[in-house]
Batch of 3 targets.
Target 1
Amino acid sequence: MQARAILLDIEGTTTPVDFVYQVLFPYARRHLGAFLAARRGDDEVRADLARLRSGRDDDERAGLAPPAWGDGAEAEVAYALWLMDRDRKSTGLKSLQGRIWEAGYRSGELLSQVYDDVPRAFARWTSQGKTLAIFSSGSVLAQRLLFAHTTAGDLTGYLSAYFDTTTGPKKEAASYARIAAELGLPPASVIFLSDVTPELDAARQAGVRTALCVRPGNAPAEAGAHRVIRTFDEMPA
């Protein structure tokens, strides 16, 4: 069955790892305290903080010794930084990071990087009638912002759907089955591109087709049963 939808990871797949770790994450760290001091009363931020509090309690019950939780922004910042130091895929944290990056993109301080082959691949695939979607641990807001503010221009016109950890963990097969259902397609007509083999393994278990992206700067990964591509130019789809 020919692929009717292409599901894409971001970090190490469409976007260099260095941009995420050397630009986006440090920006969020620098602005976290000021952001919470100014916005922690907003309803959506309060919801993010409630998710953080729930996750922090889970970490404590698991014996992970997270920072103590208090009534002010200082404790919230401490726990968020603790999560960042561990590169945790916390839904509350990812949502907060997206809100902080939103201000950076709007001010012009942030401009996203994508690999050179991404814009032409997006154009080629959509001209073939394929649906393009994103599945990333970053929030849907962060995903939209990244593709709306790239050095190649606004690429959101090519993208039909965005999925984050509210859909499910990226290393669980059920997440990919759920995505295929939301796209209205059988899993076998979806192909998932990622640089992380366990994510591809999970997608394959759900019946989704897969390809491992090997990009400069990515961590070494065993391809296993997955097709390997080094550029989207290798994959007409």
Note: The chain has a mean pLDDT of 95.
Target 2
Amino acid sequence: MVKDRIVSAEYWKNFWRNHARATLHAPVQCQVLRTVDKQPLSDQIFAQILTQIEAVLELTSEDVLLDLCCGNGAITARLASRCNRVVGIDCSQDLLDQIDTTVHRNVVLRAEDVAEADLPESSFSKVLLYAGIQYFAEEQIVRLLCRVARCLRPGGLLYLGDVPDVSRIWAFFNSPARETAYFDSLRDDQSIIGTWLDADWLSKLGRYAGFDAVQLLPQPAYFPYAHYRFDMIMRKS
């Protein structure tokens, strides 16, 4: 496995707390770095992403959803209207404060380190970790997936979205300037993306963690990050 740096637990927690404070008045997508060339994703593209997430999760009015690394709740709020309850966890209180729980009354928010958060056994029917797994080191990912498997009810589903694909790392660092930025980041210990993951490694980890079925889900070609990211579904019988 290749990383664009040795990810430390504190690095990304500090990064997101600082970024959240600095972007409180920025566009919603910029607050959580859903950007292309530093421009926020359009409403149309984001709506397509939301539609994909909903299609994969297949939420019903009975579902209790855990949204890990939920950020400012742009995804959380949409999903809340389609299930019984959502628990959203993120390390940044400033990002969580963007979610209006007086409007979304079935949303419970917890400002915690996702890597260490208490996840009671058999508490959730579905779990979403979208565009967040790269902010953890390998050993944290192993522990987190084991804990997620335990917190899911029988028949539960984990949706890992927007995972950086190590086999396509140069599709992201795809110019001399970007290659330079990549090696500068290694030299200076300043991460750009986080942990790049191998789909086969992640699939094997899913089975190790206690999931019975693992499915690689390529992103639609029109998604803005499809050239270097993938999605994955893990199911528990």
Note: Strands lie at 35-36, 39-40, 64-68, 85-90, 107-111, 124-130, 152-164, 213-218, 229-235.
Target 3
Amino acid sequence: MEPPDPAALRDRLATTPGGATVLEALAGTRAVWLVGGAVRDLLLGETPPDLDLVVEGDAAAAARTAAERLGGESVVHDRFGTATVRGEAVSFDLAVTRSETYAVPGALPDVAPADLRADLTRRDFTVNAIALGLSPDVAGRLEAIPQAWEDLAARRLRVLHAASFTDDPTRLLRLVRYAARLGFAPETETERLARAAVADGAIQTVSGPRLGSELLLLTTEPAPLAALELAATLGVAGALEPRLAPDRDLADRALALLPGDGRRGLVVLATACTRMDRVTLSGWLDRLGFPASTREVVVAAATEGPALAAALAAATRPSEIAVAVGRRPPEAVAVGGALGPEPAARTWLDELRHIRLEIGGEDLMGAGVPEGPDVGRGLAAALAARLDGAAASREAELQAALAAVRD
């Protein structure tokens, strides 16, 4: 693959969302480079989801200047020589070019300022070790480590050195994420190194929250199932949790039911966790540092499917479908429906969950119902009548609610 014209790449960057704003915010700063996946994506004709920049100088000062121009703020992370710039319309990361060393396998790196060449050689894969000059003093330059162009053309993922996965085992999860997202394949030696690192227990040297962060990123990928399947093939999934096993058939059926506001990656993860009981799964996700709301969605979808499927299969009226579903999230209903009662699950997901009462608790109390459990009982009865087509108006809802309270 012949390196493209750097000026054309810079112009392409300026047309991406926030690209022109970033260039303006950093105007006047010397030795600024766009690096990593953003350059890779531009070279592939894609729009980078994130912009990572490095500066051969004072990154914190550059970040403060950029934040002032954007009317935003900069957050400096001294340990790693990085800063995050947040403006009203754009945010980006800015780091000093640096080298990294690892005191022990799996530890966070110790960093030290270095030149651009050293910064590129610390990166995870050759296709991410490319830098595009942005500031006037380096404009027109495109720097890359050896084999970067060949690997990009061949759509290969190759680590930069043999200890890469041992130094930072989270790269094992990045390997499967990038492979699934980009349609790239691990280079032969890289795949061997990945399997060897897993077999040597590399995953166990990393803290739970760091692994959880990478797993959560995997669930946000466009092709989370493909990423998780590759993780299983390489042994990464089993190293994370021995019972973690992707189920393509179940996942595909559940994803076919999932509405647009559902989280596809959480459904994929849940269908891979069905071998775990609620306590085991909840404890594992806790150790990974999953946010409580996300954890509960995965646990419900992974462990409540059979019971929900049975309840949905027995439901004969819309109100019974609603009772069967209860307060479960759409992801859990999709998995439950995928286990058998697809029509009932689809009816809930596409129609019934959007139905709302016209009356509220204040209407019942205004009609003489005392505040307390009877209000909730009346509203539940009104909703059942509305779902079953027996209360098509506000007045009919109120009558159904009052009748239930008086019985």
Note: Residues 117 and 145 are 8 Å apart (CA to CA).
